[in-house]
UniProtKB/TrEMBL annotation:
Superkingdom field: Bacteria
Native organism taxonomy: Bacteria, Pseudomonadati, Bacteroidota, Cytophagia, Cytophagales
InterPro entries to which the protein is assigned, alphabetical: DH_E1, THDP-binding, Transketo_C/PFOR_II, Transketolase-like_Pyr-bd, Transketolase_C
Protein name in UniProt: Transketolase
Keyword set, alphabetical order: Oxidoreductase, Thiamine pyrophosphate
Described purpose of this protein according to its UniProt entry: E1 component of the 2-oxoglutarate dehydrogenase (OGDH) complex which catalyzes the decarboxylation of 2-oxoglutarate, the first step in the conversion of 2-oxoglutarate to succinyl-CoA and CO(2).
Length: 762
């Protein structure tokens, strides 16, 4: 009836979800997909009224605890944080991690949720964290549709689960289709259990357990889930439970009907083997409940659902009508007061006539009226302006809050502690600064762990973790296979369960493998639950200058524009990086820390307080003062720009060099603006492509900070070429900014203003 934008259904999946719910215990976690409403009802973490509240996009967190109206229907989440943003006693709750729509996107996170149980069981130092886990007895339950098992995320996560031997119970709802596409187009042998048979564990080889059950056979489902749960919980062996012969009587969603693509014979079979129909037969024939009693239960259930729907709609519309009625009142007043009464009357009538009004219609009416009243000074106009300002603030809270943590543990609230040096402070390789920082973090907090390709035995390719696996154990510093997507997901799941993971992506060039998981899941997590869940994961990686197409990456624009919701930290050396690790481990925000590839062997002074000092976020550092031009940069470019600044000084140009240090957040105190007020010229330099992060920095300074007012010359960007960097020293020199290029572009900028003072070089 036009009351909701979109609907997605779980019809045909009911019996399997009820059976799964019967073995789901407090402390367990779900990482599923958008057809799981029956399961959420069955574990008591979703009411029918809440289901409809999400359908209508009710922005009240009590009405829709999963997302406060931010997600379309079928996205489920429990509120794992208290009102202060701290974890509740997760071991006593039935937990559902927040759903995302992209198919198989729940799989990487599921791996981490299951892996956490192994860590809580195998690491004795975590046994005291009983609020998070009861010695790893929890199972991570995953659900997915049969067609989505074709995604690489599914295979990667299943393989990793078999390698790690974690308590992951993976249910595949198999109705034979993926929207309109039949199974033979999706899966080898048209069966995911057959396709994965090689992963089946044996008496002598570890692997996964595979169990098959029919989606309409309730006793068989109960037996299957009891066996699967026991294997997962007691043995820590992953289980694939392939639920076959399922139906989907409503089609994919409200956007289409399954009758368009299913044969007459298939539709007849689905009608006969609908699980609710088969469940009724079982209740009548085996449980011996009279048909009339079942009829009565069905009638009561339909009535209860309708009543819940009506309550949800009433609650949803009350807040909206409150604003609508107030604006109608002000428009009525304005109609009487204004010389443009007829025009105001049109706005008023349109608002009154609105069927199922929304907030946007009320806001549009108010702003439309204010345009009409712009030349008048009326009491009604003043009240309308006040209402618009208050409504915009309220709507920011409804739709745009909690992109980052708003708790007392926010990374922006971590106290700054400067590094301390003494006469005894050692001069060491940059990698040793990191190694001692990580050693201190692992020593002070048993929840801290690190993992990634080559991180464990050899201590990572640049030796930041050298010797730390031997000192702290394999469950604290761990190797993984080559699987960036599920390295990220592993970290998300661990962080969701209260641990403090550092997940390493070996090179920034390989970040793209993990990008979708980080973008769709981690970056949106706090936002899409409106502060109900958090995953303070640190993603460690390295990039910028080195050599070659795939080992000198600096795709910062890609990261900036796809990962809002994750802080992006770009330290110029390993001491700054260490300070950022200390800061983020004290916070409850996720972050990406990009170390400079060419900085591990450069000498740095080791702070005496290596495990305590912190570097604040959003605070640039002035590396060199100057009066003629401001050069803004970060990462490895800091050394290039500083060298160029020395050459510029020889030519009579004093450049002020600023290291932004963090791109998200960016210069929260407007330090760069203060520099621009002094120099009146600005250059943005980095190793990204033209129009990449330099454009972002320019927008932040010239638009957000209103820096355009202080420009005496056009702003300049210095970037890498549009292509990936070529190999070898010459490839680096001619692909990325160099000292000579920085000198020449800054020199030309000053020459334009002072041609007599700075004659042409060429």
């Amino acid at each position: 009836m036009g009351k909701a934008k979109f609907g997605i259904f779980g019809d045909g999946k009911e019996l399997a979800q009820i059976a799964m719910a019967k073995v789901f215990r407090p402390g367990d976690f779900r990482s599923g997909y958008y057809r799981d409403q029956t399961f959420m009802f069955a574990i008591g973490e979703l009411t029918v009224q809440q289901y409809f509240a999400q359908l209508y996009a009710h922005t009240n967190v009590e009405a829709d605890p999963a997302s406060a109206g931010r997600l379309m229907t079928g996205h489920y989440a429990t509120r794992m944080l208290d009102e202060n943003g701290k974890f509740k006693r997760l071991s006593e709750l039935k937990n559902s991690s927040a759903d995302i729509s992209p198919t198989a996107g729940q799989m990487p996170r599921l791996l981490g949720l299951a892996y956490a149980s192994k860590l809580f069981r195998e690491n004795p130092s975590l046994h005291s964290y009983s609020d998070l886990s009861v010695k790893g007895s929890e199972v991570a339950f995953g659900t997915i549709g049969n067609a989505s098992t074709s995604e690489g995320m599914f295979f990667e996560a299943l393989n990793a689960a078999g390698v790690l031997q974690v308590p992951m119970l993976m249910s595949v709802w198999d109705d034979g289709y993926g929207i309109s596409v039949p199974q033979e187009y999706h899966t080898t042998k048209s069966s995911i259990s057959k396709a994965l048979a090689g992963m089946q564990r044996t008496a002598t080889e570890k692997g996964i357990e595979i169990i098959i059950a029919k989606g309409w056979d309730y006793p068989e489902l109960i037996d299957a889930y009891q066996r699967a749960e026991k294997i997962c919980r007691e043995e820590h062996v992953p289980v694939l439970l392939h639920v076959v012969e399922m139906t989907q009587p409503q089609g994919h969603s409200t956007s289409g009907s399954h009758e368009r693509y299913k044969s007459k014979e298939r539709l007849e079979w689905e009608a006969e083997f609908d699980p609710i129909r088969k469940m009724r037969e079982w209740i009548v024939n085996e449980v011996m409940i009279l048909p009339e009693e079942v009829d009565s239960i069905e009638k009561e259930a339909k009535l209860a659902a309708k009543q819940a729907k009506d309550r949800a709609w009433k609650a949803f519309t009350e807040d909206i009508k409150k604003d609508q009625n107030y604006v109608i009142k002000l428009l009525t007043q304005a109609e009487k007061e204004s010389q443009h009464g007829a025009s105001i009357e049109e706005v008023l009538v349109d608002l009154i006539k609105a069927i199922n009004p929304t907030r946007l219609e009320t806001m549009r009416a108010a702003k439309r009226a204010l345009r009409i009243l712009r030349e008048e000074n009326l009491d009604a106009k003043a009240k309308l302006i006040e209402w618009v300002k208050n409504a915009e603030s309220d709507n920011h809270n409804r739709y745009s809050s909690h992109l980052y943590s708003e708790s007392d543990e926010s990374a922006l609230k971590v106290e700054r502690i400067d590094p301390v040096y003494s006469d005894d402070s050692s001069i060491v390789d940059g990698r040793e600064v990191l190694q001692q920082c990580f050693d201190a973090a692992l020593s002070r907090d048993p929840r801290v762990l690190a993992f990634g390709e080559d991180v464990g035995k050899i201590g990572d390719v640049n030796q930041g973790f050298a010797g730390l696996q031997q000192k702290h154990g394999e469950y604290r510093v761990t190797d993984t296979s080559i699987r960036e997507c599920t390295i990220a997901g592993q970290g998300i799941g661990l962080a969701l369960r209260g641990l403090r993971p550092i997940a390493e992506i070996q090179y920034l060039d390989y970040f793209i493998y993990a990008l979708q998981t980080l973008s769709d899941d981690l970056a949106t997590l706090h936002y899409r639950t409106k502060g109900g869940q958090k995953a303070p994961l640190i993603i460690r990686t390295r990039g910028h200058r080195l050599e070659g197409v795939w080992h000198a990456g600096s795709p910062i624009g890609m990261i900036l524009h796809s990962l809002r919701g994750i802080y992006l930290l770009v330290p110029r050396n390993m001491t700054q990086a260490a300070g950022f690790y200390n800061t983020m481990l004290k916070s409850d925000d996720p972050a990406i820390i990009i170390e400079c590839l060419n900085g591990y062997r450069l000498k740095e002074r080791l702070p005496d307080n290596i495990g305590e000092f912190t570097v604040p976020l959003g605070v640039p550092e002035i590396l060199r003062e100057g009066t003629d031009v401001t050069i803004v940069t970060y990462g490895s470019m800091c050394r290039v720009v500083m060298e160029a600044a020395e050459v510029l000084e020889q030519a009579g140009i004093l450049a002020e060099v600023i290291d932004v240090q963090t791109l998200l957040p960016f210069d929260i105190h407007h330090i760069i603006l203060d520099s621009l007020k002094k120099t009146n010229r600005i250059v943005f330099a980095d190793e990204d492509v033209p129009g990449g992060a330099t454009s972002y920095m320019m927008q932040q300074v010239l638009e957000n900070q209103n820096g355009y007012q202080y420009l005496d010359s056009k702003p300049v960007t210095i970037t890498a070429k549009e292509h990936r960097p070529a190999y070898a020293s010459d490839g680096d020199y001619f692909s990325k900014p160099n000292v000579e290029e920085v000198f020449e572009k800054v020199y030309d900028l000053l020459r334009e203003a002072y041609p007599d003072k700075f004659p042409s070089i060429y």
